[in-house]
Write a structure and sequence with these properties.
Blueprint: H1 9-14, H2 41-53, E1 63-68, E2 78-82, E3 88-91, E4 122-132, E5 135-142, E6 156-159, H3 165-171, E7 181-183, H4 188-194, E8 200-204
Parallel strand pairs: 1-8, 6-7
Antiparallel strand pairs: 1-2, 2-3, 4-5, 4-8, 5-6
């Protein structure tokens, strides 16, 4: 089953405090370890502000992705938001090992430095899909100073065994990527389809 949360279109676009009042709390989330009631209103407002700042970069704004790295990796913290309907689905996503050197399960810091193996904050433009060493994947371009090296660092969307729900259940946390957005293997088709080329992903730890 997938989890959804209802917002009116006006509430979603302005990112106001009314977003906190959910019409339908999520029941369950495929590929997640617990139900999610959707992203925080402040997080949505931050992402929508980023969408506005970079509006000219995106060919499509019907859906956006938001990674809430203030949450631990063992919980669903990546949201695919439908702008028109206000529905969201929460998924597990791994962070970079350079952002969590002790492997606590919590992102400790962001970095944009080449060779850091860390997650970078900011707005990303989704690019072309391709098949790489991790299977179906999607390229990303960083749009902010905090993630401007994303292409040079080969930061992409891909799936990984260490991001699977079984890892979260057994270890209480996911494994770590090299800075990429690594999703459960069962969820990668959904992510690549819903966040196709020309859309925004926003990563933060607000």
């Amino acid at each position: 089953m997938t989890g959804t949360i209802g917002y009116t279109r006006r509430q979603f676009i302005v990112g106001g405090t009314a977003l906190a009042a959910c019409a339908n709390p999520a029941l369950s989330v495929a590929g997640a370890t617990r139900a999610s009631a959707g992203p925080r209103a402040s997080l949505v407002a931050e992402a929508m502000a980023a969408l506005g700042r970079h509006r000219g970069s995106f060919a499509v704004t019907d859906r956006i992705g938001i990674a809430d790295f203030s949450a631990p990796s063992g919980l669903p913290r990546f949201y695919v938001l439908d702008v028109a309907s206000g529905e969201s689905r929460a998924l597990l996503v791994a962070h970079g090992r350079g952002s969590d050197p002790a492997h606590t399960g919590w992102l400790q810091s962001f970095s944009n430095a080449p060779g850091s193996a860390a997650t970078s904050a900011g707005a990303y433009l989704t690019g072309a899909a391709y098949t790489g060493s991790h299977g179906p994947s999607r390229r990303l371009t960083g749009l902010d100073p905090a993630n401007s090296n994303a292409e040079a660092r080969a930061i992409v969307i891909h799936s990984a065994w260490y991001a699977n729900p079984s890892v979260a259940r057994e270890q209480g946390k996911l494994g770590r990527s090299e800075g990429c957005f690594a999703f459960p293997q069962a969820d990668i088709d959904f992510v690549l389809d819903r966040l196709g080329e020309g859309r925004m992903i926003y990563a933060t730890r607000s």
